[in-house]
């Protein structure tokens, strides 16, 4: 047992809050026992420790904002999910990673009941109804909270190559048509488990420089997750990403300038209708949406790293004219943060376009300025 497992082993014993909720959970099995238990509860002590019971009071809000993260400068926070905590449906403004260190539990995300076991990770999108059911002594579950407002500046640069995890985050940040969760099984990946255990210990202990350490550990964990093969990745379709779907997505990435649904189907010896449905069922989005994701990420990269004209960038990413890319951008609406100011001053479209940008987050430019240009300045 390494020092991180030794530290985490102390969570095997129920803490005071868990013991309180376990008594409540047992009493709840019988109406008379529950009535007796509620009569003995000291409301002042409950308020003092922040406990709550649905029979005595309802949660003041089912929406959790980023104030749950202690310090404004922190991008992530690590919390243990106390066993026997009464379930309540809630949603939040941040990304949440539920990691099962030991045991098993049920995670209900939207309309999906996910049976989670040791080594499982579930990343839940913001604004998604969910509740976690941990009603046994053996399960140890941790919540890794990732601030959405700074997610792009801290982690988004990682998701430019792999279309599975990248698709999940990009569609959530840039589109209303996004998957509600994505799940990984890492039980057999000792190195990734070791990284996550380090992350949890650093996040719980909060020693000197913990902010830098936890962010870099999470970046490393994301990098390893991007390598995960198809058998370990689940989406809210409740289906596994099959190897053929992974191969199709990789083909789209490699041939994004010219690929069509018909070409993709011919390459894999299927009909276009079948391929379209297969991709939709496994990713939650269409072939064209995946193709747009790949093209727009390439366009954003070219905008930041080159002096190419927008019309030339459109040609390089596979659009024959600005008209066609503008039409696509209408269905792929960017939602800029309120703190960001963008001023675009355009000279006549032929032959040059000049951008002058005042912006707080350069990563926002990378992700969205191409879309902002196409949406604000359509061309006939």
What would your notes on this structure say?
It is built from 15 helices and eleven strands. By secondary structure, it is an alpha+beta fold. The chain folds into three domains: 59-235, Jelly Rolls, CATH 2.60.120.810; 243-284, Arc Repressor Mutant, subunit A (Orthogonal Bundle), CATH 1.10.10; 307-376, no CATH class. The strands form three sheets. Strands 2-9-4-7-10-11 form a six-stranded antiparallel sheet, covered by helices on one side. The chain has a three-stranded antiparallel sheet with strand order 6-5-8, with no helix packed on it. It is elongated. The protein starts with a helix and ends with a helix.
Annotate the secondary structure layout.
Elements: H1 3-8, H2 16-27, H3 31-40, H4 43-49, E1 63-64, E2 76-81, E3 91-92, E4 95-102, E5 104-109, E6 112-117, E7 120-124, E8 130-133, E9 140-146, H5 151-154, H6 165-174, E10 181-185, H7 190-205, H8 210-226, E11 233-235, H9 243-254, H10 261-267, H11 272-283, H12 287-305, H13 310-316, H14 322-330, H15 362-376
Parallel strand pairs: 1-3
Antiparallel strand pairs: 2-9, 4-7, 4-9, 5-6, 5-8, 7-10, 10-11
